[in-house]
Design brief:
This protein has a domain of 255 residues: Cathepsin B, Chain A (Alpha-Beta Complex). Helix content is 27%, strand content 17%. Strands 5, 6, 7, 10, 11, 12, 13, 14, 15 and 16 form a ten-stranded mixed β-sheet that branches. A four-stranded antiparallel β-sheet has the order 3-2-1-4, with no helix packed on it. β13 and β14 form a beta hairpin. α8 crosses α10. 38% of the residues are buried. The N terminus is likely disordered. Keywords: Disulfide bond, Hydrolase, Protease, Signal, Thiol protease, Zymogen. One of its GO terms (molecular function) is cysteine-type peptidase activity.
Length: 422
């Protein structure tokens, strides 16, 4: 491989007018005669910037460096072999580094991105356009993470499978919570209101995934059915609490069959309407019996033989009440919520506690559905909600996010919260 064969030869020449009585110097760090200099060669040294493109996609701190050898390393820390050669005198300090050009590096990154995420484009024109978007997103992420290093942000970004998408494309395709008439009810459907017990002691930390109540992270692809993933996840948690059995429930079943309840397939929908469908249908299929296809307009193919779990109704939590949301998550299980995921920082979230000043709490700004599976506090005292997303395991913390808790209903985390009854 080219990268494996790449060797970096660094020629370090001395400062003029520096002399020494010893002409048999063995390292570049000792004064030398005007007619000698040392060549320091690294043995088959790989440049992290080129060899770790999946680290680009998973560890921006290690990837985006002005120094190809990364932070916290000096030149003297690199394995060296000193070779004595004769050379004419020079009058200034010169450093010659043989390396790839910036364009070569970007091309390698782009090729690795396409290979990692199996990206194929129909034309060369589209490939070039997507590459330009990728480079723009790459530079934005690098700039953001540099600011994080100086303490300007509470979270880190990284490139992921969505790095070839403009932000408005990303929002349009993936964020499918429909706000319009979100709390409207189907005929005969009356949800229950959550009543928080003032005497119930709430633990300081909860994570339902540690109890086996949360299924694996899924990817919705380019289907805007986040509401169906959040609905299925909440029902999986309630079914587990009742039976001790964790099932993967069918998101495609909800996409295909809840359209009479004003959901719109891959274009978007609402969790409450999904619960109403499951209640009236007397069940929802398992993922194995009714697998996800990520397509719109398919006929409803549910049959009782595909049954996995059912809901007898659902409960809504008062708008903006984070204390009630905390109580529900602590004592009852995962809760489906809608949030404002419109800031571009959401697209490339990697780790840390997400606090985005441009994020809004109002119902009118909610555009994405997720599952709250727990909460906790960071060592620095920052409270957070732990949410499970449906962007795949390559996004965030293995598909999860920590979002600011008790921060004035940040991003509307408690503006539209509900869970099913079983």
């Amino acid at each position: 491989m080219f990268l494996q064969a790449l060797r970096i030869f660094v020629v370090v020449l001395y400062f003029k007018n520096i002399t020494s009585e010893k002409n048999d110097t063995k390292t570049i760090h000792t004064r030398q005669t005007p007619t000698n200099f040392d060549v320091v060669r690294t043995e088959t040294r790989r440049i992290p910037l080129l060899t770790a493109v999946p680290r680009l996609l998973t560890s921006p701190q290690n990837y985006f460096q002005t120094d190809a050898f990364g932070p916290q390393q000096s030149f003297s820390a690199i394995p060296q072999k000193t070779i004595r050669i004769q050379a004419p005198a020079v009058k200034s300090k010169v450093q010659i580094i043989t390396s790839l050009s910036t364009d070569d590096i970007l091309e390698l990154e782009w090729s690795n991105f396409k290979k990692t995420f199996q990206k194929n484009y129909s034309t060369l024109t589209e490939d070039r356009q997507r590459k330009e978007i990728f480079i723009e997103n790459r530079n934005k992420v690098a700039k953001f993470n540099q600011a994080y290093g100086f303490g300007y942000h509470s979270f880190v970004k990284k490139l992921n499978e969505y790095a070839d998408m403009l932000h408005h494309e990303f929002n349009h395709q993936l964020n499918g919570f429909n706000r319009t008439d979100a709390r409207g009810r189907s005929a005969g459907s009356v949800p229950s209101a959550f009543i928080r017990s003032e005497n119930a002691e709430t633990p300081i930390r909860v994570d339902w995934s540690e109890f086996g109540a949360v299924s694996s992270v899924k990817s919705q692809g380019k289907c805007g059915a986040c509401y169906a993933f959040a609905s299925a996840g909440a029902l999986e948690g309630q079914h587990f609490r009742k039976t001790g059995q964790l099932l993967d429930l069918s998101v495609q079943n909800i996409i295909d069959c809840s359209t009479p309840y004003s959901n719109n397939g891959c274009v978007g929908g609402v969790m409450d309407k999904s619960y109403e469908y499951i209640k009236d249908n007397k069940g929802v299929a398992t993922e194995a019996a009714y697998p996800f296809e990520g397509k719109d307009g398919l006929e409803c193919r549910y049959t009782p033989e595909k049954y996995g779990a059912h809901a007898t109704g659902h409960v809504v939590i008062d708008e903006g009440d984070e204390n009630s949301l905390e109580s529900a998550v602590a004592h009852l299980g995962p809760v489906s919520v809608a949030i404002d995921a419109s800031p571009d920082s959401f697209q490339f979230y990697s780790s840390g506690v997400y606090f985005e000043p441009s994020c809004q709490p109002g119902l009118e700004t909610l555009n994405h559905a997720v599952l709250v599976v727990g909460y906790g506090t960071e060592p620095n005292g920052q409270d957070y909600w732990l949410i499970k997303n449906s962007y795949g395991a390559g996004w965030g913390i293995g598909g999860y996010m920590k979002i600011a808790k008790f921060a004035n209903n940040h991003c509307g985390i408690a503006s539209f919260a509900s869970y099913p009854l079983v």
